[in-house]
Amino acid sequence: MVLETIFAMSQQKSWEITRFLKTLTYFDVIPFLNNIPVIKEMILGQESIAQPSFSPQKGTILVAGATGGVGKRVVQRLQQQNYSVRVLVRSIDRSRSIVGENLDFYEGDITISDSLKPELMKNVTGIICCTGTRIQPVEGDTENREKYYQGVKFYEPEVAESTPEAVEYKGIKNLVQLAYQEMQDSSYLPIFNFRNATEEIKSIWGALDDVVMGGVSESGFYLDHQKAVFSGNVSTENNGGFASVRTKNFESPLNLSGYQGIYLRVKGDGNRYKFFLRCDSSWDGIGYAYSFDTQKDVWLDIYVPFAELTPVFRAKTMNDAPPLDASQINSMQLMLSKFEYDKQLNPYFNPGQFRLEVEEIKAYREGKTPQFIMISSAGVTRPGRTDLDLSQEPPAVQMNEQLGGLLTWKLAGENSIRESGLRYTIIRPCALTEETEKEGLYFEQGDTLKGQVSRETIADLCLLLLKTPEAVNKTFEAAKSSEFNSPEMWRQKLSQLTTDS
Ligand SMILES: NC(=O)c1ccc[n+]([C@@H]2O[C@H](COP(=O)([O-])OP(=O)(O)OC[C@H]3O[C@@H](n4cnc5c(N)ncnc54)[C@H](OP(=O)(O)O)[C@@H]3O)[C@@H](O)[C@H]2O)c1
After folding, report:
1. Does the beta carbon of 90 sit less than 6 angstroms from any atom of ligand 1?
2. With contact defined as beta carbons under 8 Å apart, do 60 and 123 qualify?
3. CATH number of the domain located at residue range(s) 60-186+368-496 in this protein
4. 406 lines ligand 1 (CB under 6 A)
5. Residue 392 burial (10 A CB sphere; 0-12, 13-18, 19+)
6. CA 73/CA 376 separation, integer angstroms
7. Ligand 1 centroid from CA 130, angstroms
């Protein structure tokens, strides 16, 4: 196809083969050329050889207590689902063998506020807090804490190190206070911030004009005073009529599941432009397009809802295409074209000079999701309650005093979250087990629930909560249900729970 285009177009006068090759080389369309550095350098110039790779900034999920039974499973799932993960651990060296190497580690102790610096919250859009006072059998445990983790057979327990007051209350309060001051609002996920752009941002956007089809339009993308400018000259000569800039494929696909769409802050010239997302990594695959109008010299907020994107292949709509997979965004593109879709004309199109300024590209979500998810415990309100027969309660309730007021301090920690101003969800699991079979979940409020639930299931629930606005500002108990139900059903049940007053 490349050679045919070169031959056909070289017959036409004004077409530039060097720009054609430059475009294909820039986007790595001709792998054999790119594998020969001398040729690549000849076509693109010296800079091309040492191009930095770029991944758009992703919202980071912070996991506190990442080395624990629930925490390590949460981390594993976040990585599988392509989240950017930071882990707060007390010893990085010790943690590597538990959670793996490829993580953004932060060493700190929640009970020591000085060890929690603002950098801990950099880019953080969600926190999953799985910390807990270290409890062990009085008789001792194995190196892997097998007696603690099994959760079925009773071993006389004791507090192993820091007190519940320090971990469950002061520690949680320290973390919550810092989160409230420093955390980003998770309703937006910054992707390209051209107000504060880096060289990497510049290097990932490249011109992709109708030169690839034989046309002579020419555009570029450059940074200028805290914004990016997409500008050039669009021409209909040689049956052309589009100019665009596209990103190379991101280093790893961007996971925008849970978001409703893309927000663009732009200032245009009255033209109608298109914005594209691609969820496969191929050069010439399906693009998901959205047209937006601009006003000359007026800054506009453009919202591009994923649900309103049109799947297109070379400007032909593809009605049978699957909907956009927002968890796999590989590239973005901005375009000015003579055509809308299926040969319909762009009603505002005028050939010639054009200019679109872009300040910011972010993902947005409409419903606000929880910012702080805490694993607390069933039973936190039960010590001292007169409406309950304490002799029928689980050991943690009966032994609350002996365990340094473990549940009482957990309740105080919960209260500091409820009072914080953050959007939160507090899960109070019943006895935790190491069961690996898939389980259904049962939720209740009022703190009388008894039962068991696996750490695997609680980790699955945490991941669901990150995308569940229906769970915001709710506290509930959770146990394995007698019948299996799926996370979709959990979402429904969560929506029926009462919001905390
Ligand atoms: N066991 C049960 O049946 C049960 C039932 C209901 C609720 N829960 C609660 O559920 C939560 C998760 O349970 P789990 O079994 O996964 O707990 P776990 O395995 O004991 O993990 C606790 C985590 O907290 C971390 N941690 C402790 N003190 C810390 C501190 N001062 N600063 C930073 N991190 C600290 C630990 O880190 P290190 O590795 O450095 O120690 C560990 O990663 C806990 O809050 C637990 O109380 C347990």
Report:
1. yes
2. yes
3. 3.40.50.720
4. no
5. exposed
6. 16
7. 6
Helix (H) or strand (E) holding 23: helix 17-26
Q: Which CATH architecture has domain 190-364?
A: Sandwich (2.60)
Q: Which helix (H) or strand (E) element contains residue 477?
A: strand 474-480
Helices (H) and strands (E) in the chain, counts: 14, 25
Nearest CA to ligand 1 atom 39: 67
How far is residue 488's CA from residue 392's CA, in Å, rounded to a whole number?
33
pLDDT in tens, the chain (501 residues): 555 555 555 555 576 777 777 777 677 666 555 555 555 555 555 544 444 455 565 679 999 999 999 999 999 999 998 888 999 999 999 999 999 998 999 999 999 999 999 999 998 989 999 999 999 999 999 989 999 998 888 899 999 989 999 999 999 999 999 999 998 776 788 899 999 887 778 788 999 999 878 889 999 999 998 999 999 999 999 889 999 999 999 988 998 987 899 999 999 999 999 999 999 988 888 999 999 999 999 999 999 999 999 999 988 999 999 999 999 999 999 999 999 999 899 999 999 999 999 999 999 987 788 999 999 999 999 999 999 999 999 999 999 999 999 999 999 999 999 999 999 999 999 999 999 999 999 999 999 999 999 999 999 999 999 989 899 999 999 999 999 999 989 999 999 999 999
Query: For a pocket test of ligand 1, which of 90, 128, 129, 449 has the largest count of ligand atoms closer than 8 A to its C-beta?
Result: 90
Q: Which amino acid is at 215?
A: G
Q: Classify the C-alpha dihedral 167-170-173-174 as positive or negative.
A: negative
Q: Give Cβ neighbours of residue 174 (< 8 Å, ≥ 6 apart).
A: 110, 111, 112, 113, 116
Buried b / exposed e along 404-428 (16+ C-beta atoms within 10 A): bbbbbbbbbbbebbbebebbbbbbb
Contacts of 310 by beta carbon, 8 Å cutoff, 6+ apart = 288, 289, 290, 317, 341
Whole-angstrom Cα distance, residue 182 to residue 116? 11
3-state SS, residue 288: strand
- Which tokens hold the place of 127? 């926190």
The full set of domain ranges for the chain reads 1-51, 60-186+368-496, 190-364
Give the 3-state secondary structure of residue 494: helix
Residue written as tokens 């538990």? Answer: 98
